């Protein structure tokens, strides 16, 4: 989808959709994939928000892009912390670690 | 032209070439020329290897583990213990794959390699001549699951008074994080040594030239930590199929009553008194599949089999006051799996008799390596403090000693304060103070210099046959060992007869058959694919159709959920059936369903179809149906039924599963050459990308002079 060809109102609608996560009008899995949708928002609309010359909807697009970026960074921080703790301590947690795992590696504790 | 489109005229010769090349390719692939011949030129696969695997129990993991993609190391043939410096510190190309001869396979060398495991990729053992003594088992076998605990008697626990296996170095119970393999065949060892001498030898102390000969061993084990962890991981339900990572050890005990009971009626039998004659079936070694156990287990159960035969011939007519149970326990080396199971079944009314019915126990331990003309009678001092038990034991000793009249040896009681050696009887004592005796050829510690090791084989028992005999003649030749074991079997049979209340005047007619004993020793220790075992064996289960002449494996193996026992159990079952049962006239279909016949009962007996002999004038075997009281009783540790995987009471041994185990040798290049090749490849990739980029940007300049031939020939 080429953003060049869209009129500005549609760009704003699209950015809002990606921010709230209800692409295709399905709210349910919007929230689950929010970090990825936010990343898509930031990357795709970055040029539109900060590089292109000003137009009416650009201010709103800028807010959405900034909020998406912040939310994405927060998610990355939380996930990285949890993943590091889990990978480090899973062997020591014994039974709890096994019950939390989806696949357990063979042959190593 | 007939009006075909332009594409077909231009494409037609190319299409024909393509089809021809496809045909040629398929021809070569589907014919004998293998498509991956490059791999065959690089690797030499080693086929006859025995790995060391990982076993787990309630608290530990023992054995060896390799990494998931195999461990590769430069081969180094160890010449002496001092030579260990080369792989451990001096050698310039770590990691090393150390090749040892059996004389160097000692605990000190293995522990040094274990401590330097970053430089050792693996160990390969080449068994050659037997060392003077070697026992990888612990010094106090089964010390925590016998009867001598702190509460039973503080002084006798943990082998405080007698250390049974003083030569034990505990190597089997160590944990190694590199693979250890044993080579079986000589041809492969020669290939490896040739490769080593060609490429890896140090010349004049200077450095080695690449390429070097390397070996890669794959034996990645799935289970870790202990039994509780691996059983938990095996039983977790994921959306994808659960992966079993370990299996409990176990097998089947072989049991036969002289006077059989209804096999569906469990629990106490009123007014029945049973004498149990017990022996152990299994043994182990550092490399589990290589276990032989000649003195450790074979001597005991062969004696008991011969005694069963002698007794059954004599007791056809005479009534007895007590019944006799011949019990062959499996899995005893791994914390008494078989006997603990039987005691558990008896206590919980899951066996045809219970502990109240047991009058006394006579167990045959290691009896083949005598240091004089005496065999020793071991008893338990703690239970003998009770006067009833003491009187019964004294009576049993008297029966034993009087039964050696006319034989070339005698029974001597051991010191009263000495505990029992490791034996199945200890598990019965743990439940109840039952009078009993363990027969052994050692007075204090074991005479067996190779307890639970690979060297406890026919040579250890001095089973020597004159060299000019064919295998069939060797089968029939009565060795000295067979003669001495026959005498022990005679004494045991007479004792059991007396113990069961038989008439004393009939006793001296009971004699074991030396021919049976020597045939059994030959079959179990030298060559099991012999004519006698084939006659007695089953045509249904081809476990006797062993392609190699080697004896069956004695290690208990994994408890299979299908009702399949291992080869040793079937051999003992069919032997006992043939020696103590009666041949009948039933046909094969009747043998499978004998209940339809009026005189036969599957409650009391089991019916086995035996292959039989080939009569001289025909090629078909004369098979027949044997009616016998022999049954196979499941021998899996009660800990697995109870779900108590940290049990201190019962055996919790499991064996890890694995995907594949293999070994191969190949020539390996230096690291620098590998990096150089990789670097050149990456450079070529980037160069080609750059060239393509430039060519595509300047395409109009480069290709403008060439005009497309656009002849409209149509």
Summarize this, please?
Chain A is mainly α. In chain A, 68% of the residues lie in helices and 0% in strands. Chain A has 5 helices and no strands.
Could you characterize the architecture of this molecule?
The complex is a heterodimer of chains A (109) and B (714). With 109 residues, chain A is mainly alpha-helical. Chain A has 5 helices and no strands. In chain A, helix 1 (8-20) runs antiparallel to helix 3 (34-51), helix 1 (8-20) runs parallel beside helix 4 (58-89) and helix 3 runs antiparallel to helix 4 (58-89). The termini of chain A are far apart. The relative contact order of chain A is 0.11. With 714 residues, chain B is of the alpha/beta class. Chain B has 19 helices and 24 strands. An 8-stranded mixed β-sheet of chain B has the order 1-24-10-5-6-7-9-2. An 8-stranded mixed β-sheet of chain B has the order 17-16-18-15-13-14-12-22. In chain B, strands 8-4-3-23-11 form a 5-stranded mixed β-sheet, covered by helices on one side. Chain B starts with 5 loop residues before the first helix and ends in an 11-residue tail after the last helix. The model of chain B is unreliable at 1-11 (pLDDT under 50). The A-B interface holds A 94-95, 98-99, 102-104, 106-109 and B 65, 68, 220-225, 229, 232-233, 236, 238, 240, 243, 245. Chain A: Keywords: Membrane, Notch signaling pathway, Transmembrane, Transmembrane helix. Chain A: Belongs to the PEN-2 family.
């Amino acid at each position: 989808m080429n953003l060049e060809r869209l009129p500005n109102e549609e760009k704003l609608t699209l950015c809002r959709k990606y921010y709230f996560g209800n692409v295709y009008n399905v709210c349910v899995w919007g929230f689950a994939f929010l970090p990825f949708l936010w990343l898509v928002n930031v990357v795709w609309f970055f040029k539109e928000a900060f590089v292109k010359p000003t137009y009416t909807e650009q201010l709103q697009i800028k807010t959405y892009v900034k909020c998406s970026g912040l939310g994405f960074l927060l998610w990355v921080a939380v996930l990285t912390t949890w993943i590091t703790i889990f990978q480090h301590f899973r062997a020591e947690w014994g039974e709890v670690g096994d019950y939390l795992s989806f696949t357990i590696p063979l042959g190593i504790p | 032209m007939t009006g075909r489109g332009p594409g077909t005229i231009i494409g037609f010769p190319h299409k024909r070439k393509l089809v021809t090349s496809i045909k040629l390719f398929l021809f070569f692939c589907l014919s004998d020329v293998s498509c991956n011949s490059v791999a065959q030129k690089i690797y030499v696969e080693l086929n006859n290897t025995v790995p060391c695997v990982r076993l787990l129990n309630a608290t530990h993991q023992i054995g060896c583990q390799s990494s998931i993609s195999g461990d590769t190391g430069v081969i180094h043939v160890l010449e002496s213990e001092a030579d260990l410096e080369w792989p451990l510190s001096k050698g310039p190309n770590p990691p090393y794959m150390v090749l040892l001869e059996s004389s160097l396979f000692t605990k000190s060398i293995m522990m040094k390699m274990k401590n330097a495991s970053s430089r050792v990729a693996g160990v390969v053992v080449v068994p050659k001549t037997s060392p003077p003594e070697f026992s990888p088992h612990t010094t106090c076998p089964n010390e925590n699951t016998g009867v001598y605990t702190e509460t039973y008697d503080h002084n006798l626990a943990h082998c405080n008074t007698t250390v049974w296996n003083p030569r034990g170095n505990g190597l089997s119970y160590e944990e190694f994080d590199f693979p250890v393999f044993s080579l079986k065949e000589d041809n492969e060892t020669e290939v490896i040594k040739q490769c080593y001498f060609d490429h890896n030898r140090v010349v004049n102390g200077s450095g080695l030239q690449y390429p070097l000969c390397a070996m890669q061993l794959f034996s990645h084990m799935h289970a870790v930590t202990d039994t509780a962890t691996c059983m938990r991981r095996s039983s977790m339900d994921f959306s994808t199929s659960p992966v079993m990572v370990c299996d409990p050890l176990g097998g089947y005990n072989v049991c036969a009553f002289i006077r059989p009971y209804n096999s569906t009626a469990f629990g106490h039998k009123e007014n029945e008194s049973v004498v149990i004659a017990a022996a152990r079936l299994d043994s182990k070694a550092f490399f589990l599949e290589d276990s032989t156990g000649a003195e450790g287990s074979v001597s005991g159960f062969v004696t008991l089999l011969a005694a069963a035969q002698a007794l059954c011939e004599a007791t056809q007519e005479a009534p007895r006051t007590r019944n006799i149970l011949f019990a062959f326990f499996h899995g005893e080396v791994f914390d008494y799996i078989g006997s603990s199971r039987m005691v558990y079944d008896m206590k919980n009314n899951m066996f045809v008799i219970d502990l109240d019915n047991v009058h006394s126990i006579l167990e045959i331990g290691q009896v083949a390596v005598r240091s004089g003309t005496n065999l020793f009678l071991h008893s338990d001092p703690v239970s003998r403090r009770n006067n009833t038990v003491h009187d019964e034991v004294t009576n049993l000793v008297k029966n034993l000693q009087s039964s050696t009249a006319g034989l070339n040896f005698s029974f001597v009681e051991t010191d009263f304060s000495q505990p029992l050696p490791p034996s199945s009887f200890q598990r019965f004592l743990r439940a109840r103070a039952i009078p009993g005796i363990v027969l052994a050829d050692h007075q204090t510690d074991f005479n067996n210099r190779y307890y639970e090791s690979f060297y406890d084989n026919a040579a250890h028992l001095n089973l020597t046959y004159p060299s000019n005999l064919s295998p069939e003649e060797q089968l029939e030749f009565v060795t000295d060992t067979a003669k001495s074991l026959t005498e022990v079997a005679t004494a045991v049979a007479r004792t059991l007869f007396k113990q069961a209340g038989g008439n004393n005047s009939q006793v001296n007619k009971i004699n074991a058959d030396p021919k049976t004993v020597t045939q059994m020793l030959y079959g179990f220790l030298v060559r099991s694919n012999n004519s006698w075992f084939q006659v007695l064996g089953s045509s249904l289960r081809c476990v006797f159709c062993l392609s190699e002449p080697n004896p069956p494996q004695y290690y208990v193996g994994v408890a299979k959920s299908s009702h399949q026992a291992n080869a040793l159990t079937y051999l003992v079952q069919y032997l006992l059936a043939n020696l103590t049962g009666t041949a009948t006239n039933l046909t094969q279909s009747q043998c499978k369903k004998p209940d339809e016949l009026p005189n036969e009962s599957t409650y009391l007996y089991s019916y086995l179809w035996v292959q039989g002999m080939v009569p001289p004038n025909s090629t078909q075997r004369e098979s027949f149906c044997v009616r016998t009281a022999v049954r196979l009783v499941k021998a899996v540790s009660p800990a697995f039924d109870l779900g108590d995987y940290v049990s201190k009471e019962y055996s919790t041994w499991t064996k890890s599963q694995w995907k594949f185990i293999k070994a191969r040798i190949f020539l390996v290049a230096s690291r620098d050459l590998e990096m150089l090749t990789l670097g050149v490849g990456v450079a070529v990739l980037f160069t080609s990308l750059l060239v393509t980029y430039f060519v595509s940007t300047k395409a109009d300049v480069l290709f403008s002079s060439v005009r497309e031939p656009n002849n409209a020939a149509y």
